[in-house]
Each structure stands twice: as C-alpha cells, then as structure tokens.
Amino acid sequence: MKKKQVVLQILLLCMAIAVMLFLFISTLTLLTTPNGYDMAAVISNLFVNLPLFVIPGLIDYGIICFLHSRVWKSANISHIILDAIIVSVITGSMSFVSAHIFSSPNPPAQIAAFLMMNCIIVLFIELLLYHNAQMRNEKRIVEIEKEKAIYQLNALKNQVNPHFLFNSLNVLASLTYQNPACANTFAKKFANVYRYILTTSESQSVELEEELNFVRTYLYLEKMRFAESLKVTIEDNTALHHSQVIPVSIQTLVENALKHNVASEQQPLTIIIHIGEDGVTVSNNILLRNNVQRNGTGLTNLQRQYAISGQEIIITKMDNEFIVFLPYLTI
User: Fold this and answer.
1) pLDDT digits (tens, 9 = 90+) for 120-155
2) Looking at residue 38, what DSSP letter applies?
3) Cα(298)–Cα(155) distance, integer angstroms
4) List of residues 6+ apart from 121 with CB closer than 8 A
5) Torsion angle of alpha carbons 236, 267, 295, 234, nearest 10°?
6) What would the pLDDT profile of 233-247 be if each residue is shown by its tens digit?
7) What pLDDT is stored for residue 207 in this prediction?
C-alpha cells in the first residue's frame, strides 16, 4: 500500500473516531444532564477522551492491516469476527490497565463503553479495507483487460504486417497460374488464419487441439514459401488435446523463429513442437538474421499474458538452440 494512501486512511479513521465519540458524548450528556445540553462540557469531554480512543484505534488499524496482509490473505465474515475478537482482547486489556492506573471510579462500565466503541471502530476499519480491496481488484481487472487487448492487437499485427501479406499474396498469385486447385486451398487456409485470430480475440484460453490446428494452417502457408528450407516436427499427444493454452501462443513462437532466423536448403530452420504432460515446448536451431529488429515484443507480450494467469513461460537460450516452454493454463 502506498504511503500517501496509508496517511489518508489514518486521517479518515481519526475523523471517524472523532465524529463517533462526539455523537456518543453528546447523547450521553443529553440523557444524563438534568439542566439541559451543555456544548462546552461536550467539547471539553471530547478533547479529553479523544486521545484515549484515537491511539487504540490506530493500534486496531495496525493489527487488522497486519492480519489481512500476513495471516488471512483474504477477507470473509469469519476473519472479520476474529479480527474483532483479537483487537478487543488487546485494546480491552489496555483499557483495563489504564482504568486501574488512573483509578477510574467504575472500571467495568468504562471498559464496556470502550469495547463498544472499539467494535464500531473495527467495523469502520474493515469497511475501509474492504473498499480498498475492491478498488485494487477493479484496477487489476482493468490492467488485465488492457494487457489482453495489447496481446490480441499484437497477435493480429503479426499476421497483417506487410511482409506476411506481401509474401502470402505473392505465393497465391503464383499458384493461381501454376496450380489453381492448390491456390484455392491456399486462399482458404489464408482466410482460416485470420478467422481463428478474430474468433479467439475475446477468449482467455483455447483448447490445445484448436491451437495446433491453427498452427498447422499457419505452417502450411509458410511451407509454401520456405519449402525444404523449413523443417517442422509436431510431437503430438492426443490425450492432452483438451488442455488449455493462450490463443495464438504456439503460433507466436513459430512466427518468432521464422522472423529472427534465416533458412536455406543447405541450412534449414528446424522447429520442434513437443506436447508434454505439463505444457508445450517449442524449440528451434539458431541461424540469426543480421538485419532484423530484435525487440522481443512477441515474447514479452506472451510473458505478460501468462503472468496475468499467475504462471510463467520458461525461455532457454543455448549456443545453437532456442527453447520456450509454455505451461498449460490452470483454469
């Protein structure tokens, strides 16, 4: 929690205690004073008693904040009740000690009044912390939606970038004259690439089978251009096809390998997609291009998406091999 926010909450707490104490003293004065309401006596009483309630209130705040951040980790009715019991025992003990130190004429009544006020303070603190938690959750949801939008936009950009369109349309133009039937298949698969991206743009996850079918469609287009310069092996496991992955995640790694490496028949780019028990591993040999911008945007966006899901991808770079492990989503 930011220091400015803590200070603001403490000020709100002190103001709330002052208002509650004023109302309490005013009501008590009105009920017990036969000569009518005495504002001077109320104000005097307020300033005398305010420190006695503000200090325990701040102690309550510190204890409850500690319990919420270090012990409970979440807020529910049982935790709120336990908070009230714990702080009442602590601050009630303080009130008992102070009543005897200052020789209070009626310690039980003083302690009872103090505990009643303290319970109201605890309730106010719980409401304040609940409000903070809701605000944090709303902010986190907005951040998640923003991250998703950025990832989806970049995924779409990767497929509508001028190089991909230029190369794909060139291949399609050549096939139209050389092999019309193949050109028809190519055009349909070309359309399927964009259909998949658009239909999954709002989805947080897809089944592995869907993603692999999309990757195969994408690879069909790229194989038409690279021919024997591109070698792709998919070590599949149909038993794991219902596992969940982020849409366009595997394809992003394949596209990343094609973007950053050269490929020729003498030195083909070899990509291996391994479907494992815990996730998908995509590896490729390293044949780096000299004229490509290496900003790592694709991988960075993918890492952010997994971070949103509370998971992380594992990137391993060796002398001759680049490996990325994508864990299955836990939904």
Assistant:
1) 777 777 777 777 777 777 877 777 677 666 666 565
2) -
3) 8
4) 13, 16, 17, 20, 53, 56, 57, 60
5) 0
6) 999 999 999 999 988
7) 94
pLDDT band at 76 (very low <50, low <70, confident <90, very high): low
DSSP letter for each residue of 97-145:
HHHHHTT-S-HHHHHHHHHHHHHHHHHHHHHHHHHHHHHHHHHHHHHHH
CA-to-CA distance for 66 and 214, rounded, in angstroms?
A: 49
Identify the structural domains of the chain with CATH numbers, from first to last: 3-142 (no CATH), 161-327 (3.30.565)
| Interatomic CA distance for residues 193 and 15, integer angstroms | 60
More confident residue, 109 or 208: 208
Q: Spell out the residues 6+ positions from residue 77 whose beta carbon is closer than 8 angstroms to its own.
A: none
Calculate mean pLDDT across residues 210-215.
94
In the block, residue with structure tokens 């950025």: 150
What HEC string does 135-170 produce? HHHHHHHHHHHHHHHHHHHHHHHHHHCHHHHHHHHH
- The answer on pLDDT for 250 being more than 80 is yes
Helical segments of 200-331, H only: 208-226, 249-260, 297-308
3-state secondary structure of 226: helix
Average pLDDT over residues 78-98: 71
